[in-house]
């Protein structure tokens, strides 16, 4: 029997590889001869690099880069596909988790470190880069990234603008003559699961600015600065990015990737599944197990479990969904291809305990499920 375990991370409890391994361990304790294929997944956000490198037998590269507060941080990215493709999470270099709560200020935070990761990957001769752009601490429209790649964003006096979303107010012109020449031969794809435009009431600053530390006054300033950036991009580069779906992702990094690197923005889970050749990996499976920390009605809309389930169903592979918590209206997933849904929690326990015991609970659930499937197979 071939079982595929293809989970996303169980946030604050298990990474996707840890969840997959705990399931495999428990299942094979009960059914040692079963073939359990571990295929950890991600939808473009946290854990994308780890999941894709693990699933593709790639390698990790560690690099010291500029953090969001212009300090030095350690960041990791991946190389897969025999060295042809780099996988980068912008949050590794420019993520909100790198900024203490009291220091969060998107007027100051920069995407420079993300650009430094791109620069390093380009030096290794890759032909494609996949960038996960969730979890940012920034609102600079990708200005810091661009400068790290050789673009000069200049004030009226010809000096470089200050880093951060606040510095965009000084922008007078954009000079791309120094952009790394090797970048033109690389295909850039951004994994993006939001469709927010760059500016306005649904834009980067208004929707995501507050969680990055922006006050109402800052939101207005940041929004105006991104509007200004888009007008200079249109004038100097001939590209219209302001109203493009996804241009507001990661504090406008979506717009910057489109403007400076001609990146295409794609739905995260499908991008990941295609990159690791998921359809081939699950071929011939008798059952797919997928899940994440919480499964509810929102899972239907582009989340990892639904994306994996759709691929399995095209091959007539039954799908079981597992989660730490099953939320409201979860039964809608049973109407959209899932055979069964389970919580791995053993009963009424605190959230803290559930997070701590995640690997143990996953292993015990898998042990029990293997027993059920053995009985079914022998009936």
Account of the protein in words:
It is a single chain. This protein is an alpha/beta fold and 379 residues long. It folds into two domains: 2-39 and 279-378, Glycerate kinase, domain 1 (Rossmann fold, 3-Layer(aba) Sandwich), CATH 3.40.50.10350; 48-268, Glycerate kinase, domain 2. It has 13 helices and 13 strands. The strands form three sheets. The chain has a six-stranded mixed sheet with strand order 3-4-5-6-9-10, with helices on both faces. Strands 2-1-11-12-13 form a five-stranded parallel sheet, sandwiched between helices. A two-stranded antiparallel sheet has the order 7-8. Helix 1 packs across helix 13 (358-378). It is elongated, with a radius of gyration of 22 Å. The model has no long low-confidence stretch (mean pLDDT 94). One of its GO terms (molecular function) is glycerate kinase activity. It holds the Pfam family Gly_kinase. This is Glycerate kinase. Keywords: Kinase, Transferase.
């Amino acid at each position: 029997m071939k079982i595929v375990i293809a989970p996303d991370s169980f946030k604050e409890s298990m990474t996707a590889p840890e969840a997959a391994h705990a399931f495999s361990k428990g299942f094979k304790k009960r059914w040692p001869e079963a073939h359990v294929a571990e295929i950890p997944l991600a939808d473009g956000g946290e854990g994308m690099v780890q999941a894709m490198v693990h699933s593709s037998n790639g390698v990790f590269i560690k690099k010291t880069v500029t953090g969001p507060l212009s300090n030095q941080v350690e960041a990791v990215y991946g190389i897969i596909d025999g060295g042809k493709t780099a996988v980068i999470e912008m949050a590794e270099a420019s993520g909100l988790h790198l900024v203490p709560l009291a220091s969060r200020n998107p007027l100051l935070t920069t995407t420079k470190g993300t650009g430094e990761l791109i620069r390093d990957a380009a030096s290794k001769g890759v032909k494609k880069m996949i960038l996960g752009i969730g979890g940012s601490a920034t609102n600079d429209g990708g200005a810091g990234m661009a400068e790290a790649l050789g673009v000069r964003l200049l004030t009226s006096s010809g000096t470089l603008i200050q880093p951060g979303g606040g510095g965009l107010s000084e922008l007078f012109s954009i000079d791309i003559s120094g952009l790394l020449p090797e970048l033109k031969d690389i295909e850039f794809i951004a994994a993006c699961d939001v469709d927010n435009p760059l500016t306005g009431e649904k834009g980067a600053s208004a929707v995501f600015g507050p969680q990055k530390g922006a006050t109402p006054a800052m939101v207005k300033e940041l929004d105006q600065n991104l509007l200004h950036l888009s007008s200079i991009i249109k004038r100097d580069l001939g590209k219209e990015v302001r109203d493009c779906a996804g241009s507001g992702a990661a504090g406008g990094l979506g717009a910057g990737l489109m403007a400076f690197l001609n990146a295409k923005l794609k739905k995260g889970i499908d991008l990941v599944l295609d990159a690791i050749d998921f359809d081939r990996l699950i071929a011939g499976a008798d059952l797919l197990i997928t899940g994440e920390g919480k499964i509810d009605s929102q899972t239907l809309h582009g989340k990892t479990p639904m994306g994996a389930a759709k691929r399995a169903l095209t091959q007539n592979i039954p799908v079981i969904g597992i989660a730490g918590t099953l939320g409201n209206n979860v039964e809608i997933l049973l109407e959209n291809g899932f055979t069964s849904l389970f919580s791995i929690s053993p009963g009424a326990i605190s959230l803290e305990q559930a997070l701590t015991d995640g690997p143990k609970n996953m292993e015990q659930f898998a042990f029990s499920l293997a027993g059920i499937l053995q009985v079914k197979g022998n009936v």
